[in-house]
Each structure stands twice: as C-alpha cells, then as structure tokens.
Amino acid sequence: MTLSNNLPWPLGFPHQGYSVPQGPYYCSVGGQNCYGRMFSEALIYHCLEAGLNVSGTNAEVLCGQWEIQIGPVKGIDMADQLWMCRYIMHRLSEDFNLKVDYSPKPIKGDWNGAGCHTNFSTTSTRKDGGLDAIHKQLENLKKCHQECILVYGARNYERLSGAHETSSIEDFSYGVADRGASIRIPRMTNLIKKGY
Questions:
Q1: Are 11 and 37 in contact, with CB atoms under 8 Å apart?
Q2: Reduced 3-state DSSP string for 69-106
Q3: Which of 11-25, 35-49, 83-97 has the lowest mean pLDDT?
Q4: In the chain, pLDDT over 70 holds for what percent of residues?
Q5: Disulfide: which of 20, 54, 172, 183 matches 142 by Cβ 3.0-4.6 Å?
Q6: CATH architecture label of 2-101
Q7: What is the Cα–Cα distance from 79 to 165, expressed in whole angstroms?
Q8: Which of the four pLDDT bands, split at 50, 70 and 90, describes residue 163?
Q9: Which of 67, 77, 83, 81 is nearest to 117 (CA)?
Q10: Within 10 A of 9 (CB to CB), how many other CB atoms are there?
Q11: SS3 sequence of 20-73
Q12: For position 2, what pLDDT does the model report?
C-alpha cells in the first residue's frame, strides 16, 4: 500500500519534484525517512482486534509505502483476511485523512513498484524432500505463466519491467534468494531442502 494525503504523490514527496532517491526508506526509522508509521501501527492494532492473523509490517522502498503481512493462514482464509484487512485499511484511512493506493507503479521512473506477494507451502513442500516438490510446482507454474499473469492484477506490466527487483512480465523465473525472479525460494528453504 502507498499512502498519500489525498494528493497525486506519496507521503514524504515534496509538493514540487521528487523526494531524495530510494534507499533510506526501506525498513526506515526517523522523521526524515519514515512516513506513515502511525497509520501502519494503527492498522496492525485494528486488524489484530478484528481477529486477523497479522504477522508484521514494515516501511517499503518508496517513501510513504508500507507492507503488511497477513498470515500464516490456510487456504481460502488468506483471501478473506486480505479483504478484511483492506476494508479496515480504508476505514482507518478516513481517520488519518489519507488515501490508500494499490497501483503497481505509484511513481513512474526510477522507483520500485508495489506488489502483493504470497508465501506459499503445501504438505508436500514442508516434509522431507520438499524442495523437489517446490521445483516441480514451479516448473508446472512456468508452463502457464502467460495465462496466469493476466489475472494477477491490473497494470502489472508497469511494475514487472525486469528492473527494480522484478522479473519481466514476459518471462518466468525462480531462484534462491533472487529478488529479481518471478518466484523467490528462501535461502533457508534451500538449505534445509523443505519449507515454503
């Protein structure tokens, strides 16, 4: 989510031009780098009060951009909890006089975009030999990449350029701890040969 004061640019951007380049905002602290923490922490509080499984939040690469982690949850509960979180987010934005933006590239140019990712596992990936199951699942996903990418959200072509820690929307790739791949296998999953 990217937050703004109902203006066409994120929190932390000056009214004319651009903020300083990305770098100091990711997991940031301090008033010169961190914009929207009170909103993010209030969101966590209200989501927990509503019974959602929220595991964390952090400032992201673009100033005024935040990540909230829902989970762990099972199956369709993920979608239900995400929708409830988004409802709470929009309701809370009224109290803070903020606008929530889910667009994949809120600021054009040399800035990271904003996406929604899912950490995914099955019984077969969590048990011994799970890394083989992960590779099989990824090879199957590769076969239908062009079909699947069409339903992953509007205007993802703006974000999935092959730059700014993304793969190209045209290609499917996976790798260990690879922030430029379509699917990132965590380093620990690779080391212990099972997981998510």
A1: no
A2: EECCCCCCHHHHHHHHHHHHHHHHHHHHCCEEECCCCC
A3: 11-25
A4: 100
A5: 172
A6: 2-Layer Sandwich (3.30)
A7: 25
A8: very high
A9: 67
A10: 19
A11: CCCCCCCCCCCCCCCCCHHHHHHHHHHHHHCCCCEEEEEECCCCCEEEEEECCC
A12: 84
Residue 54 token pair:
């929220």
Mean pLDDT score across all residues of the chain:
93
Q: In whole angstroms, what is the distance from residue 168 CA to residue 140 CA?
A: 19
Which residue ranges make up each domain of the chain?
A: 2-101, 123-192
Quick one: tokens of 69? 């982690």
Q: What is the dihedral of CA 165, 148, 177, 70, to 10 degrees?
A: 90
The predicted model gives 87-97 an average pLDDT of 97
The answer to whether the Cα torsion of 105, 8, 151, 62 is positive or negative is positive
On the question of pLDDT at 19 being above 80, the answer is no
Question: Burial, 160: exposed, middle or buried (Cβ in 10 Å; 0-12, 13-18, 19+)?
Answer: buried
Q: How far apart are CA 149 and CA 132, in angstroms?
A: 24
Q: How far is CA 177 from the centre of its chain?
A: 16
